[in-house]
Write a structure and sequence with these properties.
With 276 residues, the protein is α/β, with parallel strands linked by helices. The protein has a domain of 188 residues: Rossmann fold (3-Layer(aba) Sandwich). The protein has 8 helices and 11 strands. The strands form 2 sheets. An 8-stranded mixed β-sheet has the order 5-3-2-6-9-10-1-11, sandwiched between helices. It has a 3-stranded antiparallel β-sheet with strand order 4-8-7, covered by helices on one side.
């Protein structure tokens, strides 16, 4: 796994990376580019820049297929805090994605288990995920895979922990009673099946999680550490998210910054010393 520390906006960096990766892939009708997408505040800038790329015809979404990471159970798609609504506001309504190329879990499905199975099948039928974008939670969750989730897990219904629900209460008028207790989420195994992973950490509130990822072995008690098991995984972090780094990695980062203080990014290699 590599850690990229950038002093520019992580949203700008991620959007530019997506644009360049899609262009290099050169998707067509018969060979679409399949991308996994997250929601949340960390990636708002990324979506804003992707919209600009589309408006300026720097990125064509016509032959892109999207799969979202998750959706709350019980919220109608039209609810302002559903992830369907989030994606419509922040991306889908502004780019030339074909409606049949947009896949999101149905949190109101009558049979949630069957919905999870169908979602996994749809990803397989699309040829698998070429690039999965994601954020990381303060307690180490990725998507809604909370601590203790198996690294082999597939798309499933997850019970949200109190800390995750409290973190998301700000989107529900700070009323915890309005925050759903469950979500459909892609599994960790589903994420690891992607050909490439790009996860993003921004701000000092994610610093503890970043430090745990880069210093500890892979363990289900910290789901984000599964990234260390993937051959093409990148954690993109800003400087604030790296304030708690210590030891060898802190030394490597300091030396890299001293050697090239005007660089927009510094790349560090992170090994998983003890796979669990």
């Amino acid at each position: 796994m590599r850690l990229i520390v950038t002093k520019i906006s992580v949203g700008l960096w991620a959007a530019a990376y997506i644009k360049n990766t899609v262009k290099q892939f050169a998707p067509t009708l018969d060979k679409p580019f399949v991308i996994g997408l997250p929601t949340g505040s960390t990636v708002l800038d990324m979506y804003a820049i992707l919209r600009t790329f589309a408006k300026e015809r720097l990125l064509n979404f016509q032959h892109i297929i999207t799969f979202n990471m998750d959706e709350y159970v019980g919220l109608p798609a039209g609810h302002p805090q559903s992830y369907h609504s989030y994606m419509q506001r922040n991306l889908f309504d502004h780019v030339n994605l074909l409606p049949e190329h947009i896949f999101m879990p149905n949190g109101q499905a009558q049979d949630l288990i069957q919905e999870c199975t169908h979602y996994e099948e749809a990803m397989v039928q699309a040829g698998g995920i070429d690039l999965f974008i994601g954020g990381i939670g303060r307690n180490g969750h990725i998507a809604f895979n909370e601590p203790g989730t198996s690294f082999n897990s597939r798309t499933h219904v997850a019970d949200l922990t109190p800390s995750t629900r409290e973190a998301n209460a700000r989107f529900f008028q700070n009323d915890l009673s309005r925050v759903p207790r469950q979500a459909i989420t892609v599994g960790i195994g589903t994420i690891l099946d992607a050909k490439e992973l790009l996860f993003i950490a921004s701000g000092v509130k994610k610093a503890a999680a970043v430090t745990h990822l880069v210093t500890q072995p892979a363990t289900p008690s910290w789901p984000l550490t599964a990234l260390k098991l993937h051959p093409r995984a990148t954690l993109l972090a800003d400087l604030e998210a790296c304030v708690l780094l210590s030891g060898d990695l802190k030394t490597q980062l300091d030396e890299a910054m001293q050697a090239d203080p005007h660089a927009e990014q510094w790349v560090l290699s992170v090994e998983n010393k003890e796979e669990l």
